[in-house]
Design goal:
By secondary structure, this protein is α/β, with parallel strands linked by helices. It has one domain: Glycerol-3-phosphate (1)-acyltransferase (3-Layer(aba) Sandwich). Strands 1-7-6-2-5-3-4 form a seven-stranded mixed sheet, sandwiched between helices. Strand 3, helix 3 and strand 4 form a beta-alpha-beta unit. It is globular and about 50 Å long. The N and C termini lie far apart (44 Å).
Length: 203
């Protein structure tokens, strides 16, 4: 696997670069949530994965809401093309390989530090944000459901709409998860939250 080589200066540069892109390509970003996240716990963020910008939305939440260090799991073949991202907190996972366990263990190691956020995209691939029900990859449960994982679990659903304007608006719906730590319960709760977000988006 490829581990991250987190450096705050690189992260600051990367954040500034995407803030510029944000002003050019997007009209507005809104975080819709009344959730409160304990300061003494790390955060495991489960987020939908539908675009090139998904890592930036995760980083945006780390800076604006969680105020913790940003880390995200990315497919190794994609990260190998963009090695500079390791400086921003990105580490790799290779599906269907022995290295998968190493990546999952590394994510758990990061979550032992209350100053960290680890983002995973449980779909395991980019899918349309119109697809509300998608199967979670089994690997996520090896992080979320471990008995020694005391991190806080958060759900994020990112939806995009143009409405009547040229540039789209990004809405990030965010929620605490406090239910049973089982793969089935977490997946069902996420999909239920996703559907409620789509309903709010269309009201």
């Amino acid at each position: 696997m490829i581990k991250d080589r987190y450096h705050p200066l690189w992260l600051r540069f990367y954040s500034s670069y995407f803030r510029l892109l944000q002003k050019i390509y997007f009209r507005k970003i809104s975080v819709i949530s009344d959730a409160i996240f304990p300061e003494d716990q790390s955060v495991l963020l489960l987020q939908n994965h539908f675009s090139y910008y998904d890592g930036y939305w995760s980083m945006y939440l780390c800076n604006k809401v969680f105020r913790r260090r940003f880390h995200v799991m990315m497919l190794e073949e994609e990260l190998a093309k963009r090695m500079f991202l390791t400086r921003c907190g990105v580490f790799s996972v290779r599906k269907n390989s022995r290295d998968l366990i190493e990546s999952l263990n590394y994510a758990n190691e990061l979550l032992q530090d209350p100053l960290n956020v680890v983002t995973i995209y449980p779909s395991g691939e980019i899918i349309s944000h119109h697809q509300q029900n998608f199967p979670f990859q089994q690997g996520f449960a090896r992080i979320a459901c471990r008995r020694d994982n005391h991190s806080h679990i958060a759900f994020a659903v990112v939806l995009v709409d143009h409405f009547s304007l040229a540039r789209p608006e990004i809405r990030i719906y965010l929620k605490n998860y406090s239910g049973e730590r089982s793969a089935e319960s977490i997946e069902l709760a996420y999909h239920s939250f996703y559907q409620s977000c789509v309903t709010k988006q269309t009201e």
